[in-house]
Amino acid sequence: MIGHRTGLRRAVVALAAVIPLGVVVGAPAPALADVPPLQKQWHLDALRIKEVHRVSTGAGVVVAVVDTGVYADHPDLAGQVLDGKRMIGTDDKGKVDERNHGTGVAGLIAARGGGAGHALGIAPGAKILPVTIATNTFAGSNMPDGIRYAVDHGAKVINLSNGGPTTSPDLDEAVRYAQSKDVVVVAAAGNTAQGDTGVLYPARLPGVIAVAATDRQGAAWSGSVRGEQIAIAAPGADVSTTAGRWPDLREGGYLTVEGGTSAATAVVSGAAALIRAKYPEASAAQVVDRLVKTAVDAGPPGRDSEYGFGRLDLVKALTTDLAPVDANPLGAMPAAEAADENTVEGSGFDFGPLVAVAGALVLLVFVVVLVVVVLVNRRGRGPAHH
């Protein structure tokens, strides 16, 4: 994630890998950028962005950034940020970012550029839906609510540059809900520099694109976690992006990412937006399939724990002819177990035993009434004669 070690006034900010399921953590970080961002946007050339933007800019696609909010007034994000929602506290429509993380993610996805000294996103034609979630307490994470909000408010891609070591029924259900609504879910795999030892949730859930980071040489970034759930790798080290402040606290600055799967995740979310704009009829499963099938294999042949299916190749992802698929190659969340028909949803109380007792009482009353009726009839007729 983008996080502070000591806050904005110390001007120490980074796009580190992830928030452990809603917790902003410190990370080794350079200061807010003083150099023109294009000097540190090497990933754009590596991904052949000029050629890519002749094919697609992501126009018409909404990407939700479920994060720390997005500084909507940044000059490189002006007009790119929709009204979203802060899921906890006073609602600011998601347009305030006190930690810079969400703003950096948004810039990597959809910054408009504009020449030297400005940041350019992977999908500058896309719109950002900012959804601010709790980021200061593990127990207070409301990521599931943020995911559902994003789905219900038009997001076709959800960027989750955050995660944690465990999941929950609510998080599982939120991801399942997104998949059922044909939304592409992209999540950061995690950073070893922040103590992560394996692919985090929700990145490791079936059907979610778990993203690892690469460096300038295209090699696996040393701080990216490894794991069998990794789906794809993308640039995530030594890149510049948008921030809420300059070092002197003026608004609208930039920051340089030393390394992090949060940044790589934003790049892949931008890629998903490009594909959804180019192929508007493609399902979420087909978008995922296109990303992984066109990735450049790296490391051991086939899918591996460092690069997944390989390094992101935007040009191939947008131009390769692929047969449609019906299923997400990364799997899908299993269907939720059907609720017992005698259980009232959300009540927390199972009425099954009560229904059984009530049925037995009704049967007993019926038997008693029947016996009484028979006895009365016999008395009325007198003893039988032979």
Automatic annotation (TrEMBL):
Statement: the UniProt record of this protein carries the keyword Cytoplasm: no
Principal location: membrane
Record InterPro entries: Peptidase_S8/S53_dom, Peptidase_S8/S53_dom_sf, Peptidase_S8_Asp-AS, Peptidase_S8_His-AS, Peptidase_S8_subtilisin-like, Peptidase_S8_subtilisin-rel, T7SS_pept_S8A_mycosin
Molecular function in Gene Ontology: serine-type endopeptidase activity
Classification via Pfam families: Peptidase_S8
Compartments reported by the entry: Cell membrane
One GO CC term on file: plasma membrane
Name of the molecule in the record: Type VII secretion-associated serine protease mycosin
Source organism (scientific name): Micromonospora pisi
